[in-house]
C-alpha cells in the first residue's frame, strides 16, 4: 500500500485503541459529585439509575484487550506497511502464476519467513498426503492402481468427489452435469474420449478448444447454409435446399468433425449428429459457433494438485459413467 494509505491506517488503528483507553479512564471518574450508590434521579419504567462505577471485571477485560491489541500490532502486520517483528505473513503476495508462487515459496523457506499458507500446505501434505498415496497406489507403493478399480472403491471415490467439489465444481457444477460451455461429465459423451487414461490426461494437461471462426470465409449466407446442414445431421427439420448447399460447404469442417460429422476425439471435435451441444443447440447458437468459432480452455491440474490427487479425481469422474 502507498505511504498515505499506510499512515491513514496506522492513525485510525492507534487512534481507535487509545480513544477506547481514554473513554475507559473518563468513565472511571465520578462526574456526578454524589455518594456511590445514591440515586441519580433518572428513572424509566419504575427502574432508578444509581451512581455506581463500572464493574471491575468489565474494566479489567477492557484494559486486557487494549494491551493485547497493542502487542498484536507490534508482533503481526496491521499498522499500514509495518510487517511486525515476527515477520509473519498470511501468504506470498503479488504472485500471478504458479511459477511465481513456487519461487516465492522457495524464497520464504530459505529466508525463514513465517508464511502461514506455506506452513499449512506442508502440514496438510504430512497429514493427508500419505492417505492420498495409500488410495492411489498398489500395495508396493510404486504402481498406480487401475482407475477402473479405484472407481469401485467407495472410500477412494469419496475422496475424489471432495477433490472434484473443491476444484472442478465451479465450472462443471456440483453434480458434474456442466453448463453452457462446460461439458457434462455425468453422461457418455466425451470430446476427448471417456477411457480412464483419456480422462486422466485431460485433467493432467488441460484442454484448449480451437474451432476457428468461419464467418469471414463463408459470409452470412454460407453460415446459415452450413448451420442448416449441421442441424440436419441430428435429425432437425431444416430447409432441404439450404442444407444441401451447406453440405457442399461442410468440407472445410470435415477435417475435424469428419465427413459424417461424428467428430474426432483425438482433436476434441464434437459429434454433430447426436443432438448434444456444448454451447447450445438452437439455430442461433449453432450459427454463432460457426460464425465466431469457439476457444474454450480447461486448465492443467498436474502442477496444481499433483498426480496422486489427479489419479483419484479421474477415478471419481470415471465412476460417474461406470456405475
TrEMBL record:
Cytochrome c domain location is: 155-234, 241-321
Q: Which UniProt keywords apply?
A: Cell inner membrane, Cell membrane, Electron transport, Heme, Hydrogen ion transport, Ion transport, Iron, Membrane, Metal-binding, Oxidoreductase, Repeat, Respiratory chain, Transmembrane, Transmembrane helix, Transport
Q: Which GO terms describe its biological process?
A: proton transmembrane transport
InterPro entries cross-referenced by the UniProt entry = CcoP_N, CcoP_N_sf, Cyt_c-like_dom, Cyt_c-like_dom_sf, Cyt_C_IC, Cyt_c_oxidase_cbb3_su3, Cytochrome_c_Oxidase_Subunit
Q: Which residues bind heme c 2?
A: 211, 253, 256-257
Key word Plastid present: no
Q: Which domain of life is it from?
A: Bacteria
List of residues binding heme c 1? 168, 171-172, 298
Q: Which Pfam families match?
A: Cytochrome_CBB3 (PF13442), FixP_N (PF14715)
Cofactor note as given: Binds 2 heme C groups per subunit.
Specify the pathway.
Energy metabolism; oxidative phosphorylation
Q: Where in the cell is it found?
A: Cell inner membrane
Q: Which residues cross the membrane?
A: 7-26, 57-76
GO cellular component terms, alphabetically, are: plasma membrane
Q: Name one GO molecular function term.
A: heme binding
Chief place of localization: membrane
Q: Which cofactor does it need?
A: heme c
Electron transport listed as a keyword? yes
Q: What does this protein do?
A: C-type cytochrome. Part of the cbb3-type cytochrome c oxidase complex.
What do we know about how this protein assembles, alone or with others? Component of the cbb3-type cytochrome c oxidase.
Q: What is stated as this protein's family in its record?
A: Belongs to the CcoP / FixP family.
Report what the protein is called.
Cbb3-type cytochrome c oxidase subunit
Question: What organism is the protein native to?
Answer: Oceanimonas pelagia
Amino acid at each position: 500500500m502507498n505511504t498515505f494509505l499506510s499512515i491513514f491506517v496506522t492513525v485510525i488503528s492507534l487512534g481507535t485503541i487509545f480513544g477506547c483507553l481514554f473513554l475507559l479512564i473518563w468513565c472511571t471518574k465520578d462526574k456526578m459529585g454524589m455518594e456511590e450508590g445514591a440515586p441519580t434521579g433518572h428513572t424509566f419504567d419504575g427502574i432508578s439509575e444509581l451512581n455506581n462505577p463500572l464493574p471491575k471485571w468489565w474494566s479489567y477485560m477492557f484494559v486486557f484487550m487494549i494491551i493485547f491489541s497493542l502487542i498484536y500490532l507490534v508482533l503481526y502486520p496491521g499498522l499500514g506497511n509495518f510487517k511486525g517483528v515476527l515477520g509473519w505473513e498470511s501468504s506470498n503476495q503479488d504472485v500471478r502464476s504458479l511459477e511465481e508462487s513456487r519461487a516465492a515459496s522457495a524464497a520464504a523457506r530459505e529466508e525463514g519467513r513465517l508464511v502461514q499458507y506455506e506452513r499449512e500446505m506442508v502440514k496438510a501434505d504430512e497429514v493427508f498426503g500419505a492417505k492420498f498415496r495409500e488410495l492411489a497406489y498398489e500395495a508396493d507403493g510404486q504402481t498406480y492402481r487401475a482407475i477402473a478399480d479405484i472407481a469401485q472403491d467407495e472410500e477412494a471415490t469419496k475422496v475424489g468427489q471432495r477433490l472434484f467439489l473443491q476444484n472442478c465444481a465451479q465450472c462443471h457444477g456440483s453434480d458434474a452435469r456442466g453448463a453452457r460451455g462446460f461439458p457434462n461429465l455425468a453422461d457418455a459423451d466425451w470430446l476427448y474420449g471417456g477411457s480412464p487414461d483419456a480422462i486422466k490426461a485431460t485433467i493432467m494437461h488441460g484442454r484448449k478448444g480451437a474451432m476457428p471462426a468461419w464467418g469471414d470465409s463463408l459470409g452470412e449466407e454460407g453460415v446459415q447454409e452450413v448451420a442448416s446442414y449441421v442441424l440436419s445431421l441430428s435429425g432437425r427439420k431444416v430447409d432441404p435446399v439450404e442444407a444441401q448447399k451447406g453440405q457442399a460447404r461442410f468440407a472445410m469442417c470435415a477435417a475435424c468433425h469428419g465427413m459424417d460429422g461424428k467428430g474426432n476425439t483425438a482433436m476434441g471435435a464434437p459429434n454433430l449428429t447426436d443432438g448434444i451441444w456444448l454451447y447450445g443447440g438452437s439455430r442461433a447458437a449453432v450459427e454463432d459457433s460457426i460464425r465466431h468459432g469457439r476457444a474454450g480452455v480447461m486448465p492443467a491440474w498436474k502442477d496444481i494438485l499433483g498426480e496422486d490427487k489427479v489419479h483419484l479425481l479421474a477415478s471419481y469422474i470415471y465412476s460417474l459413467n461406470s456405475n
